[in-house]
C-alpha cells in the first residue's frame, strides 16, 4: 500500500511539472492579441517644411522730367572785345534763340560793325548793320536736368551798309621809277546791301543757373551783293565778314547768354 501511494504521488508530480512547462512554451494568446491591438504606435515621419521667401513688390515712383522752354538772349564777346586789340574794328552783336520743340530753336543775331580794311593798294572803311534769322537743331541728348546744346543750324543774313574809299595807290606795271604814291580819296558809297546763307555749327554749355557760354563756327555763301558805282569791290560786308574776292566767307562768335524760362513741358518716356 505504501509503495502504491508513492507511485501515484510521483506520477502526479511529473504531470504537474509537464503542465507547468507546457504553460511556459505556449504563448499567451490574450497577451499576443493585446500586443497586436495596442502595440507601439509608430512615430509619424517628420514633414520637411519648405521655407518660402515672400517678395514684396513695391511700386517705384519715377520722377516726372520736365523741359524748360523760353528765350535766351546775350552778346557776342568776340566782337565786343575785338576793338580792344584791333584799332581798325568796332562792333557789337546781340544773339538770341527761342525753344520751339524738344530739339529745334528759332535763332537770330543782330549787330553793327565799323571795319577799316587795309590792303596793299587801298584803304577803305565799311559801316553798317545786319540781321540773321534761322534755326538751330540740338543733336545732344541731355540727361537729368542738363540743358546743354550741340547744334547745327542755318541762317539767312541781310546787311545794309556804306563804304568809303579812304586812300589808294595806282598800280604801275613798269615800276622802273618806283611805286606810285598813295592818293587820298574820301569817295563814299551809301545804300549798299548784301544777302547770304550761313551754315552754323556750335555749342552752348550751362555754367551757372540760366547762364550759358557758347561758341560757333560759320560758313557763308553770298547770294546778292550791291557794289559801289565806281567799280570798287566790297571787301568787307557787316555780318558776312571778308569776301576774299569771292562769294564765300567765314566767321565765328563767342557768346554769353541768359535763359529766361517761360513754361515747362513734361517729357514723355520712351516706349520699351
SS content category: mainly beta
The radius of gyration computed from the alpha-carbon positions, rounded to a whole number of angstroms, is: 54 Å
> What's the mean pLDDT score?
81
The helix count comes to 3
Q: Count of DSSP E strands?
A: 10
Distance from N terminus to C terminus (CA atoms, Å) equals: 125 Å
Query: What fraction of the residues are assigned to beta strands by DSSP?
Result: over 45%
What is the N-to-C succession of helices and strands?
Answer: HHEHEEEEEEEEE
Residue stretches low in confidence (pLDDT < 50, at least 5 long) are 22-40
Overall form: elongated
Helix % is 10-25%
Strand order of the largest sheet: 1-2-3-4-5-6-7-10
Largest sheet: 8 strands, antiparallel, barrel
Characterise this structure:
This protein is mainly beta and 272 residues long. The chain has three helices and ten strands. The chain has helices at residues 2-25, 29-37, 77-82, and strands spanning 66-76, 89-99, 104-118, 122-138, 149-169, 182-208, 211-225, 236-237, 241-242, 248-266. The strands form two sheets. The protein has an eight-stranded antiparallel beta barrel. A two-stranded antiparallel sheet has the order 8-9. The radius of gyration is 54 Å and the shape is elongated. It starts with a helix and ends in a 6-residue tail after the last strand. The model is unreliable at 22-40 (pLDDT under 50).
Amino acid at each position: 500500500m505504501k509503495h502504491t501511494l508513492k507511485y501515484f504521488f510521483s506520477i502526479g508530480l511529473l504531470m504537474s511539472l509537464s503542465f507547468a512547462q507546457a504553460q511556459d512554451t505556449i504563448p499567451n494568446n490574450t497577451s499576443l492579441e493585446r500586443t497586436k491591438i495596442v502595440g507601439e504606435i509608430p512615430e509619424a515621419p517628420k514633414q520637411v517644411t519648405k521655407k518660402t521667401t515672400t517678395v514684396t513688390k513695391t511700386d517705384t515712383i519715377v520722377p516726372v522730367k520736365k523741359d524748360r522752354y523760353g528765350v535766351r538772349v546775350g552778346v557776342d564777346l568776340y566782337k565786343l572785345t575785338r576793338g580792344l586789340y584791333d584799332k581798325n574794328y568796332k562792333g557789337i552783336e546781340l544773339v538770341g534763340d527761342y525753344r520751339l520743340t524738344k530739339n529745334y530753336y528759332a535763332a537770330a543775331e543782330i549787330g553793327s560793325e565799323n571795319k577799316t580794311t587795309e590792303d596793299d593798294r587801298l584803304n577803305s572803311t565799311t559801316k553798317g548793320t545786319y540781321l540773321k534769322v534761322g534755326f538751330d537743331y540740338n543733336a545732344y541728348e541731355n540727361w537729368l536736368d542738363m540743358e546743354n546744346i550741340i547744334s547745327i543750324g542755318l541762317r539767312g543774313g541781310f546787311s545794309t551798309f556804306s563804304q568809303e574809299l579812304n586812300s589808294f595807290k595806282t598800280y604801275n606795271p613798269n615800276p622802273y621809277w618806283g611805286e606810285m604814291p598813295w592818293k587820298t580819296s574820301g569817295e563814299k558809297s551809301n545804300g549798299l546791301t548784301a544777302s547770304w546763307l550761313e551754315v552754323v555749327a556750335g555749342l552752348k554749355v550751362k555754367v551757372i543757373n540760366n547762364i550759358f557760354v557758347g561758341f560757333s563756327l560759320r560758313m557763308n555763301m553770298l547770294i546778292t551783293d550791291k557794289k559801289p558805282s565806281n567799280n570798287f569791290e566790297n571787301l568787307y560786308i557787316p555780318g558776312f565778314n571778308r569776301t576774299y574776292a569771292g562769294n564765300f566767307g567765314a566767321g565765328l562768335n563767342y557768346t554769353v547768354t541768359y535763359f529766361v524760362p517761360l513754361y515747362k513741358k513734361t517729357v514723355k518716356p520712351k516706349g520699351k
